Amino acid sequence: MQDAGRYAIEYREGVGKRSIVPEMDVDEAVSRFRTALPEQGMAANSVIDQMVEDADAGLSQMCSPRYFGYVLGGSHPVGVAADMLVSAWGQNAGSAAETPAITGMERAVCDWSLDLLGLPEDCGVGIVTGATVANTQGIMAARHALLQNQGWDVEDQGLFGAPEIPVLIGDAAHSAPFAALRYAGFGAGRLSRVAVDEQRRVLPGAFKTALDACDAPPLVILQAGQINSGAFDPFEVLIPMVQARGGWVHVDGAFGLWLQAVPELRKRLAGVELADSWAVDLHKWLNAPFDAALCITRDRAPLVASMSARGSYLPDTSEHWEPTDSTFELSRRARGVASYAILRHLGRAGVQEMVARHCRLARLTADRLASVPGITVLNEIACNQVAICCGEAAEGDEQTRQVLDIVQKNGLVYPSHGTWGERQIIRISVIGYATGDLETDMLVDEITAAWQRVRGGNHAS
Ligand SMILES: *Cc1c(COP(=O)(O)O)cnc(C)c1O
Predict the structure, then answer these.
(1) Does residue 427 line the site of ligand 1, with CB under 6 A?
(2) How far, in Å, CA of 163 to CA of 147, rounded?
(3) pLDDT higher than 70, residue 192
(4) Ligand 1 atom showing the smallest separation from residue 134 Cα
(5) 282 alpha carbon to ligand 1 midpoint, in Å?
(6) Burial class, 10, CB count within 10 angstroms (exposed 0-12 / middle 13-18 / buried 19+)
(7) CB of 185 within 8 A of CB of 144?
(8) Does residue 123 line the site of ligand 1, with CB under 6 A?
(9) What angle do the packed helices 131-149 and 300-307 form, to 10 degrees?
(10) Residues 205-263: tens digit of each pLDDT
């Protein structure tokens, strides 16, 4: 453990000096590790030494402040330190009475997160592995409630022969809620995909038409933070329309829901608090180590009824808080503890500062890139995501790919790829806990220099 601690510190101290992209590719890595099962064991400290040596060149510097790819948190060091203790403590956090200290910390994470996210303090909350699972659980709670309202107990009677639940989802939703709907038995082929505007927000007119076509109270999936544009659906307009019809609104707020923590920014997602359930990651904007997210439901009862492993009959929805009542898992890691440490370390002011800083830097980055001739910023900066493309049309798509390739291979900063309608884009996510002006300046310089090379035609690859 001492060796591992020392290696962990060395890695994190050196992360800023490394190329962001790993030197070793996946084929090499797999052949290095995937040997025949050793017949004889090896001393514990030799295993750790060897593992570090073999893995070093195959790590991607995702916790670097210069990592702008996908939408990933940077594993805040105080959370990592807490996570090391979680492993050492070896608590099975599935049972509150057996692990009281963990339950105390995880309940604090639930309370504090609800407070920061501007949601009612008596919501049901499950601490899960990621927003994909959080979306699945929220949708399963919705399934329970909507079917119960139609006189059907899905926990007992299952889905075969159940009344229909119409499902509406924005056409620019993330792939995760689509998967979640499949996991929950809704099927991918029977969803109504609602048209969105050019910023990927659900269009109220199209939404009303889709709602009017529903012959039962629907399940509606909205989004706080579209993966490319960062846009928020117009919750204030849409949610009351659904609730007037007895439906359930679930919001995929994997990263974007954290904007709620900043009072000045809350108006951008006004009405999001009216929904019935929310999925939000802790391992993205809060920068908790992977895997951590929250599934939140306004009414705790359907969450417990659908998740409790203690039997669907008479679920205990009393004050007693049993972790396994709100999550899929029975045995589980104390995965809320790292977020406890981060929230304790940052406090309300620290979370607000971080989220506001990322939004400010995204705006600044977009403005600077937009002033470079031939670079187009495609999105209105709604939060921390910036979507750009280079050049025009088909030639521009190829040039955009070349620019991204040069920037990524250079290894100083790491934005990633996306698509915007027909166009290839470079997507920038400003989300690392330590990302500041220095890093976004470097990103702008790297992209600008690569674009000048590509446009000048001297980009020998
Ligand atoms: C990342 C993301 C997800 C999936 O979350 P995981 O934590 O990777 O499971 C879902 N929705 C949105 C909008 C996301 O950005």
Answers:
(1) no
(2) 7
(3) yes
(4) 9
(5) 11
(6) exposed
(7) no
(8) no
(9) 100
(10) 999 999 999 999 999 999 999 999 999 999 999 999 999 999 999 999 999 999 999 99
Does residue 252 line the site of ligand 1, with CB under 6 A?
yes
Quick one: three-class SS letters along 202-220? ECHHHHHHHHHCCCCCCEE
At a CB cut-off of 8 Å and minimum separation 6, what does 43 contact? none
CB half-sphere exposure, 328, CA atoms < 13 A: 16
Please give the distance, rounded to the nearest whole angstrom, from the Cα atom of residue 308 to the centre of ligand 1. 24
- What is the C-alpha to C-alpha distance for residues 104 and 99, in angstroms, rounded to an integer? 9
Q: What's the half-sphere exposure (Cβ side, CA atoms, 13 Å) at 190?
A: 12
309 confidence band (pLDDT: 50, 70, 90): confident
Contacts of 436 (CB under 8 A, 6+ apart): 65, 357, 361
CA nearest neighbour of 281 among 261, 258, 249, 299: 258
What number does the ligand 1 atom closest to the CA of 226 have?
A: 13
Dist. CA 356–CA 366, nearest whole Å: 15
| Nearest atom of ligand 1 to the alpha carbon of 255 | 15
Angle between helices 337-370 and 77-89 (to 10 degrees): 150
**Distance from the alpha carbon of residue 254 to the mean position of ligand 1, in angstroms:** 5
* CA 30 / ligand 1 centre spacing (Å): 27
Exposed/middle/buried for residue 179 (C-beta within 10 Å: 0-12, 13-18, 19+)? middle
Is any atom of ligand 1 closer than 6 Å to the C-beta of 211? no
